[in-house]
Design a protein that fits this description.
Layout: H1 6-19, E1 24-28, H2 36-49, E2 54-58, H3 62-68, E3 72-76, E4 79-83, H4 85-106
Parallel strand pairs: 1-2
Antiparallel strand pairs: 3-4
Length: about 110
């Protein structure tokens, strides 16, 4: 009996949801612990399903969020805001650069 890889397990979970004809998929870190090839395959399968299946993704990886380019519900400090991908990206990019600047100023180089 062969042990399944992380990518194979994720694909199996998506397939099970498809066989059950799920109308809504709640995907909690579906690309976590998955190799690059499997990530692409899983993303393509889920993108193909967008027409017939509502999807709610929980992601923490900035680059995975970029790949989706979907509307983003940003939850921070008890507040939730809905953004188009582009407006969310501008907000996060600005906040990240502001944070980096403050971190750089507070560092003491030896």
């Amino acid at each position: 009996l062969k042990v399944l890889s992380g990518g194979q397990k994720q694909k199996l979970k998506v397939a099970r949801a498809l066989l059950n004809r799920a109308h809504v998929l709640l995907l909690d870190e579906p690309l976590n612990a998955v190799d690059a090839t499997s990530k692409k395959e899983i993303l393509q399968i889920l993108k193909d399903l967008e027409v017939t299946t509502a999807q709610i993704w929980v992601l923490h990886d900035y680059f995975e969020i970029q790949q989706l380019q979907a509307p983003v519900l940003w939850i921070q400090e008890g507040r939730a805001e809905l953004y188009s991908f582009d407006s969310w990206f501008k907000k996060v990019d600005h906040e990240f650069h502001s944070w980096m600047k403050s971190e750089k100023e507070s560092c003491q180089w030896i």
